[in-house]
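Subject: complex prediction, re-run

Hi both,

The earlier run crashed halfway through, so I resubmitted it with identical inputs.
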Amino acid sequence: MSERLIARLDSLMALNDTERRGMRALPIQFRKVSGRNTLLADKLIDDHIHIIDEGYACRFRDLPDGRRQILSLLVPGDVIGLRGFVLGGLHPSITSLSALTLQAVPNVSLFSLLESHPKITRALWSTTLVDESISREWLVSIGKRSAVERVAHLLCELYLRLQAVALTDDNRFALPLTQTELADALGLSTVHVNRTLQDLRRNGFITFQSGTLEIHKFNDLAALGMFSANYLHIRDRRQRNAAISS
Amino acid sequence: MSERLIARLDSLMALNDTERRGMRALPIQFRKVSGRNTLLADKLIDDHIHIIDEGYACRFRDLPDGRRQILSLLVPGDVIGLRGFVLGGLHPSITSLSALTLQAVPNVSLFSLLESHPKITRALWSTTLVDESISREWLVSIGKRSAVERVAHLLCELYLRLQAVALTDDNRFALPLTQTELADALGLSTVHVNRTLQDLRRNGFITFQSGTLEIHKFNDLAALGMFSANYLHIRDRRQRNAAISS
DNA sequence: CGAGAAGTTGAAAAGATTCAACCAGAGTGG
DNA sequence: CCACTCTGGTTGAATCTTTTCAACTTCTCG
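This time it finished cleanly. Structure:
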């Protein structure tokens, strides 16, 4: 009974009762990952997909010479392991960025559910397409945006993603990333991220201390980062209700 | 009877005869796009997905201030429009990089085929996952690789992708991109791409003239770009045969 | 042959990185 | 309870890669 996942899929594809029931019937096992920087390799090779229930994680790639690129940030509601489920092959490396609670669903159970529920399949497919959408937006950031723009853009993205799963409080949210991790996500050096964050603070856009980020002027920050939310495919409450009642 | 698409899906998921028949029964319409730099917007809003039969195209994003980032290069066998098919919403901008022949399949026909063929669904899903895989690799390139490494990496990628659809001839293949377009794909300036290509030529890695690229020392180029092919999910002929006979 | 697009070159400037040192805070052990 | 250590954050200066600008060349094609 992974309500997180049901909510996520529902927001993408508006499930009906049969489909919800099918989802609720999936066997779920909760798994805990204790601290930061724990590789999830062992969890990922055992034929389960995982939904993040609490905490943050990231996919990353290490280059032979030690450089690291963070490929995506994973927040509650995000699904891990669909690539392996569908395509097979190697998992990208994933590591926790905080303590995590995961919901594990056996691949076989999911497989048979999908056999008979094309709409759930499309909903899950959608989650991977949203992931790709985000990857592409990161490509734009890293490829064409300046340092300040990049940071601004990422913070806006995270704010909306977390808001969608009700993890923002006013304009604040938990952001337990070190500046080094931000740098690896943004394709910048740690030092430069540091200076860029100072810039944003000095100009009153954000407060960022002890793992909490507060955005003071979202619209200005969004303008600065040339941020436009549609690539996240988050339906606001109005749209979602409309979809459900139709 | 889109053999291109069947071959593509088969290489990802090994279809059986029923599934092939289903695919062949899809109504296909061939469409031509005459030259370079033609936007495909009109083709994409009319409820068809398209498979590239011949020619090159790319997805891109323009920023408000005129900067452009190319998000992916599309070669024969690649599918366009699955995001819209599954998720709805806006298409990313796509433009031709050469004359194109497209195979158009009506969304409705595909939709009903997928309702009853979960494996075809998973195969199509796979194509979007491979796209994402490539996006992520580009993220690594743009985020962490130097200019030479990036160029080397991209050329290796293209070589293998085109080889997979039998469009390489020896170590040569058609690469009808301008240096400006390469720059937009790689997150570099045109000038710098120019100098980088000269570097690669001077060191005997490649020849690149009149739209044809020749790679003289693939392994060296791959080493230079820290290229490793698995993210492309191209099965070589041996693996494919094994999958079919199983 | 002429015009426009693409490629090439050099020099100056900008943005980001690197290096190295230093500071602040959290957690540990004596 | 306090020094001690470790991690993460901050600072300055030098350096490097890449960009920008502007001019010039070469190629392509009508």
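The CA atoms of residues 19 and 120 of chain A lie 7 Å apart.

- K.
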